[in-house]
Protein: Protein AAR2 homolog
Amino acid sequence: MEAISGVSLMASMSPDTALKLFENGAVLIIAGVPPGTEFGIDQWSFVVGENFRGVKMIPEGVHFVYCASQGPYGDAAPRVGFVHFFRRGEIIVREWDNEREELKPRIHDDVEEELCRIRENLKNLDRYLAPYDYDGLVKWRKLTGNITAETVQRHSPECGVIRNTVELMSCSDEERPRGDSPLSTVNSSRLSKIRSLMNEEELLPNLKTLPGSAPRFTTLPPRCPKDASPAEISQHHMDSIAAIDQLLQDGREEAVFAEIQFSFVLFLSGHSVESLNHWRKILLLLSNSEKAVEEYRGFFRNYLTALQYQLPELPVELMEQTESNTVYLDVRRLLLNSYHAGITAAAQSLEKSLKGTLLWRFENLFEEDPEDLPTVVDVE
Structure:
């Protein structure tokens, strides 16, 4: 196939199966991507060739599509992409923006006419379209199975583009730190001492996120309300049930779980720093409440299962079993709370899975509790 380089064409697939997937799967048409650009969909990527025009046989569901430009010395630019919930038989058209080096929606005077023309000529376009990588579909669905079209619409940036970091607005002239402040009239020795007592952040420009460029995640409730008494502060830090109740109120368990999956795949496929940070904050919150596990058993069973597939995809520095790895420490606390709250089977499954994939060990997990393993069993 001339459209791409270095891609397996699933030689084991029968012609009948391939034809069925072609007729029922969605199609992504892409125009103008320069040869040598890295293209990816979900966890599958390759370098495009001269004749690349898109991807066929895309299964129904959520998918992440991105491109990364290649520099003259082989260096790759950060990934820039979009998330879309592909419907059965849907045709999506994107074109390359040379100035911003990213994919953008196709601008056409008559969109419906263009889509009809593409549909009529799909068989002629077939040899220019890369087949979707079905070898990775099972794994992808385990990571995204609860994400709906509404999830994508609710949490995607308003601009529709996912970048590894959000775009920032430069500060105004009034907000810019000045070099001719009163401090500059002081001798250098004294100036150094004074500056050492100041908050360094006050010397930085006040950069704000460009409106519409950031993923629209839920604002997480604080573990401790601002007006809490000293006794209440201790209680909230010991168990974050109040914040979790607020997060999951009004039957939002499914929506929050989908948001957890969505934020993780934005990081996994799009390298989004903000998305990883959001996923990390949710883990920290959910790991700090035994009462919440008792109250939301179904939600936490699903969450423990999701972590089996998410944690092995983290960066290497977050996979080490060390006291400085807060992800490991939070998972350890979550397991302990899950055992005590009685969702033993799900906790054992996660613990066994992490021993096999990450070589994590949880020795002395119950050393904080002399009662050892709880006798409570799962109740469906």
Summary: Residues 1-7, 179-204, 370-377 have pLDDT under 50 and may be disordered. The chain has 14 helices and 13 strands. Residues 40 and 211 are 27 Å apart (CA to CA). The radius of gyration is 25 Å.
